[in-house]
Amino acid sequence: MDVREEARRLHALFATQPTQLVQFLSGQIATVKTYAQILVGLCGLTVTVTGFSGAHMIRSGSISAGLMVAGIALVMIGLVVCIRTITALRWVSQELQDDLIETAVVVIERRNRQQHLLSIAAVFVAAGLGCYLAAVSVAALVSGNFAPR
After folding, report:
1. pLDDT in the model for residue 46
2. Which of 40, 86, 126, 147 is most exposed, with the fewest beta carbons within 10 Å of its own?
3. Is residue 66 part of a domain?
4. Secondary structure of the chain in the HEC alphabet?
5. What is the tally of structural domains in the chain?
6. Domain-located, residue 119
7. Confidence band for 125, pLDDT divided at 50, 70 and 90
8. Is residue 133, in this structure, part of any structural domain at all?
9. Which domain range does residue 46 map to?
């Protein structure tokens, strides 16, 4: 369904309750922001863990160190995208127009744009965590802590 059709359907659903429509749209934007905050928290956790285990991975050799650096770099790219998305504040009340269908179109387009950016950020974070996990695995193999007994 395209944005205009979604806006029309929502307007019809909330035809007798325009305040509820605005609250519904605000709730969707809040959900996107919550998703971004979860990704930011995951990025922060990754950076924190690196502070504890980074030196061990570096001592384990260049493959582990390279994977760790690549992982942190990818996570940081995801973090920057998340922060840019959640700090681009625009209130639903700033989008209010006399025509609530047009208001809904503008808010839905913003929601979709932010959701798309956060999906891209999530790919970077996932790739970074994958590299980080590979770095930990290589470090464990090199150190012999992962050898079968």
Report:
1. 85
2. 147
3. yes
4. CCHHHHHHHHHHHCCCCHHHHHHHHHHHHHHHHHHHHHHHHHHHHHHHHHHHHHHHHHHCCHHHHHHHHHHHHHHHHHHHHHHHHHHCCCCHHHHCCCCHHHHHHHHHHHHHHHHHHHHHHHHHHHHHHHHHHHHHHHHHHHHCCCCCC
5. 1
6. yes
7. very high
8. yes
9. 38-91+109-149
Q: Residue 30 — very low, low, confident or very high, per pLDDT cuts 50/70/90? A: very high
* pLDDT at residue 149 tops 60: no
8-35 CB burial, b ≥16 within 10 A, e <16: eebbeebeeeeeebbebbeebbeebeeb
Dist CA 32 CA 11 (whole Å): 21
Q: How far is Cα 88 from Cα 65, in angstroms, rounded to an integer?
A: 35
Which pLDDT score, from 0 to 100, does residue 48 have?
A: 85
> Model pTM?
0.84
Distance (Å, whole) CA 34 – CA 27: 10
